[in-house]
Hints:
Blueprint: H1 2-24, H2 30-51, H3 54-71, H4 73-85, H5 88-94, H6 99-128, H7 136-163, H8 167-176, H9 178-183, H10 196-204, H11 206-218, H12 232-235, H13 237-264
Helix pairs in contact: 1-6, 2-3, 2-6, 3-6, 3-7, 3-11, 4-6, 4-7, 4-8, 6-7, 7-8, 7-11, 7-13, 11-13
Amino acid sequence: MNALVAGLRDSNVVAWRNLMNIKRNPDLLLAGTAQPIMFVLMFAYVFGGSLGGGAYREFLIAGIFVQTVAFNSAFTVIGLANDLQKGMMDRFRSLPMSRVAVLLGRTGSDLLVSVLTVVIMSLCGLIVGWRIRGSLLDAALAFGLLLLFSFAMSWVGAFIGLVARSVEVAQSAGLLWMFPVTFVSSAFVPAESMPGPLRGFAEWNPITVYADALRELFGNPLRVTGPPPDSWPAQHAVLYSVVSALVILAVFIPLAVARYRRVASR
C-alpha cells in the first residue's frame, strides 16, 4: 500500500510538472482546441447542407468528440519523445521515484487536457445546434466513456513516444496512423455507405463504436438517413466501447511500461 501511495504521489508531481509546461507554452493547446473547432465548422456548414443539415450536425458532434480525444494522444507521444530527446528520462531515473510515475503522470495530465478539450467542443457543438436529448445520467455516462477512451489512447501514445527516436519522428508516427483509423469509421459518414472491406473494418472500428455509443447516450440520431445500423458492434455499442478501451489498456500499459524500463536502464 505504501508503494502504491508513493507511486500515485510521484505521478501527481509529474502530472503537475507537465501541466506547468502547458501553462508556460499555451500554444501547445492550439492543436487540441483549434483543430476540432475547425472540423466542426467545416463539416457542419460546408458539408452539412448536403448531408442533412441540423440532423447531420447532431450526428456529427459525437464523431468529432471521439476523433478529438483520439488525436489528443499526440500530446503524449510528443511529450515523452521530447523528454527522451532532452535527457529528462535520465534525470527522472536518478530520482528516488516510482518508475511508473513518469508514464502515469504523463497520461494523467493529458487526460486533464482532454477534459478541457471536451468542454470546449461541447460549447462549440451547442453553438452549431447539437443538443443532449437523453437523460443526465446517460450524458454523464457518455462523457465518462469518452474520457476512458482518451485515457486508453494516451497509453497508445505513450508507447509510440517511447519507441520514436526523435520528436520529429514522434510527430509523424503519432498522427499518421490516426487519419485512416479515424476516417474509415462512422465518425463523419455512415459505415454502411462504404464498400465491402472498408465497411467491415469501419463497423468494428472502436472509433465507430464509440461514436455510436455517444449518439445513443446523448439521444442523437445514429444515422441521418436510412435505418439504424444492424451490425453487432452497433447493437451493443456501449458494451463494445468499454471492452475495446479495456483491451487497449491491457495491451499498451504493459508495452509502454516495458519500453520505459528499457529506455530508463540505458
